Amino acid sequence: MISYISESFIFLSKGGIVMFPIIICSLIGFAVFVERLLALKRDKIIPLHLFEETKVLIHAHKIDEALELCNSNGSSLARILRVGIKNYGRPREAVK
Q1: Largest alpha-carbon pair distance within the chain?
Q2: Are residues 29 and 60 in the same domain?
Q3: Do 13 and 34 belong to one domain?
Q4: From CA 65, how far away is CA 38, in angstroms rounded?
Q5: What average pLDDT does this structure show over 64-87?
Q6: Are 51 and 90 in a shared domain?
Q7: Among candidates 69, 77, 85, which has minimal Cα distance to 47?
Q8: Number of separate helices (H) and strands (E) present in the chain
Q9: Do residues 89 and 48 share a domain?
Q10: Distance (Å, rounded) from C-alpha 40 to C-alpha 42?
Q11: pTM of the full predicted structure?
């Protein structure tokens, strides 16, 4: 383990001063990645309860309630479902 660390340090030192901005940018990039990973949790993008509730409302022919449910949710899935519900009952060619 210690030889690996010393070899890494030697490798970095051979890169000279250019290696420090590269390391700093790598750390910043990793921090941004972790922050986005935490901010964009799956529940915010595809809330499963929304899909299930919308499906039940559509099967019960409660289109207005399903549309209102999608309007009250700000997720990506809600926006997609909202467009689909607005075109409910229209022929496939008209939707395209």
Answers
A1: 69
A2: no
A3: yes
A4: 31
A5: 89
A6: yes
A7: 77
A8: 7, 0
A9: yes
A10: 6
A11: 0.55
Instruction: Please report how the helices 76-86 and 48-59 are oriented relative to each other, as an axis angle in degrees rounded to 10.
Output: 20
Q: Which of 80, 81, 74 is nearest to 53 (CA)?
A: 81
Cβ contact 53:69 at 8 Å: yes
| Strand positions, DSSP E, the chain | none
- Those residues whose C-beta lies under 8 Å from the C-beta of residue 34, and which sit 6 or more positions away, are none
Q: Count the neighbouring beta carbons within 10 Å of the beta carbon of residue 54.
A: 23
Q: How confident is the model at residue 32 (pLDDT cuts 50, 70, 90)?
A: very high
Per-residue pLDDT band for 95 (boundaries 50, 70, 90) equals confident
